[in-house]
């Protein structure tokens, strides 16, 4: 499957403030695309523009190969399900009746309700009024509504917001099963790196409206490779000697780093330093965490 | 064609499904009961002379009562139907499933349904009160129809305003307050010079009243006279109503959710 959602130079401006800037999002089919960014980075606005709920100031949105415009928006959205920000529901109706309304609007037979209720594990609460549901149950109902009619794409905006740890885990497990179970592509946004790390196969990081990273999650992990911090009798001289012998080294904030954690490289570095009469005072392994990478990319602190 | 038809019927049915257990019909019915009691109690002990002009009195009185009741009723109906969307945060979801204009129109049509219960009910109340109070005047059926028509039209314009406000406000207190203030303004507008009164939307019930009243303070006798139908005002009011609906609808459709 190719790219199912693509935005090209997508921009949204409110007054003088650019909320989303030249965003080129590419969501591969069959993936769980984690759309990550701090609060207020422009995630919800981007998702709203994809769904046609907000009009882009400039740029285009292509869904399933078709460029979305006001005329074809609804026919394209027939293949999508969405859960944007807080869950949508009719509090005076039961869970099942809520889904019946969605079935009518999606023109999906009501027999589909049982399946989605089973998927979100809500069979027992289906006849209770939604006004009496907990937030977690409302979110699950929202997901059930989004799943009605087996959409090819699912857009979930912060689906675990406000949920307790058990609810978060349950929602996460549910989302992870969707591509394999229904062949869906899931675009899920979050400000929690750990959450995206546990769900996504692809990740896009947005900061202050701009996309600062977009690739496979594995590629993001590669950035987190370990390095060795060295303290020697003369760091500057050691840097030159190690570099001269072809070892990957750098000096960052007056600290010397060997950019490898392979045993042979460390041994080799020790030998070279000893040959040059430079003594090793300290040797420390440093793992660059995903949080560090996120911080480097966004320049902002992150919720954990 | 069949696609459009199924879209229309699904929007209509979905709106119907949302109203389960809301018992919104109680609102127009409740206002009809108030109207009936108000009109009936005042006519329990009428003289033979009064009975001979009973329908004229009723058709003069109903537009005045409508000025007080209908603004509040339209505010309550619109609020009851729109609040479920605002409270449940459903607009974002609905706008991915149906056209905003279609949502706006069907919601309005369902509100109109409850409004018609009231206006048609009011038309039925006229002969009913005549029967209970033993009016001797012949029922002026064409004037009753005219009254129902003009009441529906003015109520529709007020409903347009309330519908728009209820969908645009995150808190339903504002539209309800507008209904309440409108009711007072409509009442006061009857004491305004006619030209100034034309600017008060809520006072138009009395502008289309088929009867006027003269009260002689010395003899303390009321007499009713026929007012020629203000066709020009009526046409202009229809045009204004249509334009007002289109403007409100366009603003809603363009609003980002």
UniProtKB/TrEMBL annotation, chain A:
Keywords: ATP-binding, Nucleotide-binding, Transport. It comes from the Bacteria. Residues 5-233 form the ABC transporter domain. GO terms for molecular function: ATP binding. The keyword Nucleotide-binding applies. This is ABC transporter ATP-binding protein. The keyword ATP-binding applies. Belongs to the ABC transporter superfamily. Pfam families: ABC_tran. PROSITE patterns: ABC_TRANSPORTER_1, ABC_TRANSPORTER_2.
From TrEMBL, chain B:
The keyword Transmembrane applies. Keywords: Membrane, Transmembrane, Transmembrane helix. The chain crosses the membrane at residues 24-41, 61-82, 114-137, 143-161, 173-192, 234-252. Pfam families: ABC2_membrane_4. It comes from the Bacteria. This is ABC transporter permease. It comes from Blautia celeris.
């Amino acid at each position: 499957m190719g790219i199912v959602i693509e935005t090209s130079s997508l921009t949204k401006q409110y007054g003088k403030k650019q909320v989303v800037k030249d965003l080129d999002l590419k969501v591969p089919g069959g993936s769980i695309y984690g759309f990550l960014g701090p609060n207020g980075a422009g995630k919800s606005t981007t998702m709203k523009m994809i769904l046609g709920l907000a009009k882009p100031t400039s740029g285009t949105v292509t869904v399933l190969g078709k460029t979305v415009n006001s005329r074809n928006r609804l026919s394209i959205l027939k293949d999508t399900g969405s859960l944007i920000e807080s869950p949508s529901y009719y509090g005076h109706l039961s869970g099942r009746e809520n889904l019946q309304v969605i079935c009518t609007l999606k023109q999906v037979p009501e027999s589909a309700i049982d399946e989605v209720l089973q998927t979100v594990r809500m069979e027992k609460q289906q006849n209770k009024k939604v006004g009496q549901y907990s937030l977690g149950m409302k979110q699950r109902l929202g997901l059930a509504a989004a799943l009605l009619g087996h959409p090819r794409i699912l857009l979930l905006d912060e689906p675990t917001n406000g949920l307790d740890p058990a609810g978060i885990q349950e929602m996460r497990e549910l989302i992870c099963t969707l591509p394999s179970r229904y062949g869906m592509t899931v675009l899920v946004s979050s400000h929690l790196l750990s959450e995206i790390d546990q769900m996504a196969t692809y990740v896009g990081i947005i900061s202050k409206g701009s996309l600062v990273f977009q690739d496979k999650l594995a590629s993001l992990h590669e950035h987190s490779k370990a390095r060795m911090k060295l303290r020697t009798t003369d760091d500057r001289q050691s840097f030159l000697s190690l570099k001269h012998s072809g070892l990957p080294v750098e000096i960052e904030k007056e600290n010397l780093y060997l950019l490898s954690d392979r045993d042979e490289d460390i041994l080799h570095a020790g030998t070279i330093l000893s040959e040059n009469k430079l003594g090793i005072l300290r040797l420390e392994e440093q793992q660059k965490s995903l949080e560090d990478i996120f911080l480097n990319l966004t320049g902002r602190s992150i919720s954990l | 064609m069949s696609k459009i038809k199924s879209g229309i019927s699904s929007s209509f049915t979905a709106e119907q499904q949302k109203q389960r257990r809301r018992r919104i019909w109680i609102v127009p019915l409740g206002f009809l009961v108030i109207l009936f009691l108000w009109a009936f109690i005042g006519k329990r002990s009428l003289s033979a002379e009064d009975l001979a002009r009973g329908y004229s009195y009723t058709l003069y009185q109903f537009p005045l009562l409508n000025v007080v009741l209908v603004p509040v009723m339209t505010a309550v109906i619109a609020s009851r139907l729109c609040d479920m969307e605002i409270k449940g945060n459903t607009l974002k979801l609905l706008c991915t499933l149906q056209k905003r204009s279609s949502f706006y129109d069907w919601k309005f049509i369902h509100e109109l349904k409850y409004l018609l219960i009231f206006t048609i009910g009011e038309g039925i109340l006229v002969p009913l009160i005549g029967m209970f109070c033993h009016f001797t005047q012949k029922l002026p059926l064409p004037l009753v129809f005219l009254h129902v028509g003009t009441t529906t039209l003015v109520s529709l314009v007020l409903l347009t305003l309330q519908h728009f406000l209820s969908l645009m406000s995150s808190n339903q207190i504002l539209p309800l307050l507008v209904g309440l203030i409108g009711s007072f303004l409509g009442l006061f507008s009857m004491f305004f010079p006619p030209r100034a009164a034309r600017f008060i939307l809520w006072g138009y019930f009395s502008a289309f009243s088929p009867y006027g009243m003269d009260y002689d303070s010395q003899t303390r006798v009321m007499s009713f006279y026929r007012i020629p139908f203000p066709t020009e005002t009526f046409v202009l009011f229809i045009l204004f109503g249509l334009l007002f609906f289109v403007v409100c609808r366009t603003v809603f459709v363009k609003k980002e959710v």
